[in-house]
Amino acid sequence: MVYDLTQEIKDENGRTLNQKYKSIIVNELGQEVETLSSKPITLGTAIRDCILYRQNKPEEKTEEDILFAEDIFDKCEYYNVDLKKEEVSFIKKLVIERYLQHSSAQILRMLNK
After folding, report:
1. Could you give the C-alpha distances from 14 to 10, 17, 66, 102, 106, in angstroms and in order?
2. Do 5 and 73 meet the contact criterion of CB atoms below 8 Å apart?
3. pTM
4. 3-state class percentages of the chain: helix first, strand second, coil last, to nearest 5
5. The pLDDT value given to residue 8
6. Which has the closest alpha carbon to 103: 3, 10, 27?
7. How far is residue 108's CA from residue 101's CA, in Å, rounded to a whole number?
């Protein structure tokens, strides 16, 4: 099934959730400066975040598991993605583990369509 990865995740008040991140920019004096930015959390960024989060979990992973997860991560770089049933099942498990209930429910509903 094809999923629109640009769908935004909302907080309990209906506002788009933002993910904060640090980046390095060069200021007008030519100095590197660390800055804090944010971007909306979308279905695609949530899926990629879950896969990155999984990498930090100390569990036994086979080569097949790692490549399977990485293939999903790569697919979710685009705006629309065709995910197989087993890929969606894998993502759902990660979402439940990674996100709080309100965010998880939104993501699961998006994946259940």
Report:
1. 5, 9, 35, 11, 11
2. no
3. 0.82
4. 45, 25, 30
5. 97
6. 10
7. 10
